[in-house]
Design goal:
Length: 488
């Protein structure tokens, strides 16, 4: 097996500082490092104390000056002791690497595994380590490589639960996936119907009750589920979405509840289910209407006792999971057809958030379009705006695919349009000529009705402007301007 760090023979003076008596008896022994690596070194001094002691190490690096770092004694032997360095800071590490590089043997063998003549290569063809020592990024690359190798060694002792915990830690704490999600920024809209949805999200989020989200495709059901999770006490725990329609029925049970090794052909190892994985957090069951009746019963049992039972296990495990479900189908009609359990429906439908289709959100269509236009333009470093015809087209288009369709059309327009101003043609909105004509004729109809009503009122009120204004429910200046407009 190869080493994890390059070690080279050196002759470097070092002072080992030890606290022998609770701060009263500090001793400093002058000795030397006989070998060094980025992780530690061998010191030519046999200590009078046992292993695992923390010591101070003071050394002078040629060209770089004096360093004082902490080390832990790992082993002591007749010839001396092996020390591991404690959290070397970046500067100390880079300078130490400079020194190690200068002292590396020049026999061209791989310093990790000893394979001869390897240093001519960028990476060793036996152990795989990068040998690109003179690259500016070498240390960063090396740390990444050695991190992965250390992890691979340690992971042999990990349980599958540990692995999920680690992956979740990486997502939430390191990559910040799902963190800093701001419902006010990500969830766009100011129509009354969407403001009502926001207010429901705020109300239900801090509770633990199940939520059923309904709405047409692309209206934001998953976004709503995430917003509820993000506003709940569970926000630092996993949010686990699962699409019940996307996984074949025979695999879905194992996905949701897990299985024990050997419980069926192909179950080669224990598998943790999504419910267990979501422990402490939220599970989002999308397209719940597609769940088989067998799994509906199992879900109902879970909702009653919060115990998950892996396939093939003798007992269950209690988990603390909040359930949010969504559907774009009519579960009540499923009940009458016998495909959806009534008792499960009432368990899920404790709190219902219904997302209105975009066509019922008034001016939100344009607000959403502008929001995504801004977002995509920024991403592509472009400056784009909508022409007034494009805005009209967005208003009159029948957005069957809802927000998702708006996103797709805007993204397409940003990519396709060579001009800073986006036109209806860039948006590829299939507004039929009939629809455009009817918009035009509506304006004409409105004008002719306006003119006719004004004529009738003038006649009825003997051209008394104040009376006409009262009858039509408009101001006197408006009557004057209408008379001017229609030449009356
Ligand atoms: N009000 C909104 N503001 C901003 N983005 C939104 C809004 N509603 C939905 N989206 C975005 O639109 C896309 C579709 O939303 P989402 O996946 O939540 O819809 P859905 O109802 O779950 O769709 P489906 O039924 O097809 O699964 C996502 O990218 C989502 O972030
Ligand atoms: Mg969805």
């Amino acid at each position: 097996m190869s080493r994890l760090d390059i070690r080279c023979k050196v002759d470097l003076p070092v002072s080992v500082i030890m606290d022998n008596n609770g701060g009263k008896g500090i001793t400093e022994t002058k000795t030397k490092f006989s070998s060094l690596s980025l992780g530690g070194g061998f010191i030519d001094h046999k200590p009078s104390f046992g292993e695992n002691r923390i010591v101070g190490l003071k050394y002078d690096l040629p060209r770089h000056g004096e360093f004082e770092i902490l080390g832990e004694i790992l082993r002591s032997e007749n010839q001396g002791m092996a020390a591991r360095f404690y959290n070397l800071n970046r500067d100390a590490k880079l300078k130490l690497w400079d020194f190690i590089k200068d002292n590396m043997s020049d026999d061209l063998a791989c310093p990790y595994c000893g394979k001869e003549n390897s240093q001519k290569l960028r990476s060793c063809d036996r152990c795989g380590w990068s040998l690109n020592f003179y690259s500016q990024n070498y240390i960063v690359e090396h740390e990444k490589e050695s991190f992965l190798k250390r992890l691979a060694l340690k992971s042999q002792d990990f349980s599958i639960e540990d692995i999920y915990k680690i992956l979740n830690y990486i997502d939430v704490e390191v990559l910040k996936i799902g963190k800093n999600f701001d419902i006010n920024e990500e969830f766009v809209g100011s129509s009354q119907s969407i403001l009502d949805v926001f207010s429901m999200i705020r109300k239900v989020a801090p509770t633990d009750i199940p939520v059923l989200i309904t709405g047409e495709s692309g209206t934001g059901k998953e976004l709503t589920a995430m917003a509820i999770h993000e506003r709940s006490q569970r926000r630092n725990k996993p949010f686990v979405p699962i699409n019940c329609a996307a996984i074949p029925e025979n695999l879905l049970e194992g996905e949701l509840f897990g299985h024990e090794k050997g419980s069926f052909t192909g179950a080669h190892a224990n598998k943790i289910g999504k419910f267990e994985y979501a422990d402490g957090g939220t599970i989002f069951l999308d397209e719940i209407g597609e769940l088989s009746t067998g799994l509906q019963s199992k879900l109902l049992r879970f909702l009653e006792d919060k115990v998950v039972e892996r396939i093939g296990s003798n007992g269950g495990k209690k988990v603390d999971v909040r359930l949010i479900a969504a559907t774009n189908s009519d579960l009540k009609s499923g009940i009458s057809k016998g495909t959806f359990r009534k008792d499960l429906f009432y368990r899920l439908d404790v709190f219902n958030v219904n997302l209105p289709p975009v066509r019922d959100r008034g001016e939100d269509k344009v607000i959403l379009a502008r929001y995504f236009l801004n977002k995509f333009s920024k991403e592509m470093n472009l400056s784009k705006s909508l022409s007034s015809e494009a805005v009209d087209a967005i208003r009159s288009y029948d957005w069957q695919g809802n927000v998702r369709e708006i996103i797709n059309k805007i993204r397409r327009a940003v990519v396709m349009s060579g001009d800073p101003v986006i036109t209806p043609a860039d948006l590829d909105l299939n507004i039929t000529t009939f629809a455009l004509e009817s918009v035009k004729s509506l304006r004409e109809v409105r004008h002719s009705i306006e003119k006719q009503k004004l004529l009738e009122a003038m006649k009825h009120c003997n051209s008394n402007i104040s009376k006409v204004a009262r009858v039509l429910g408009i101001s006197r200046p408006s009557v004057y301007s209408l008379r001017k407009k229609y030449n009356i």
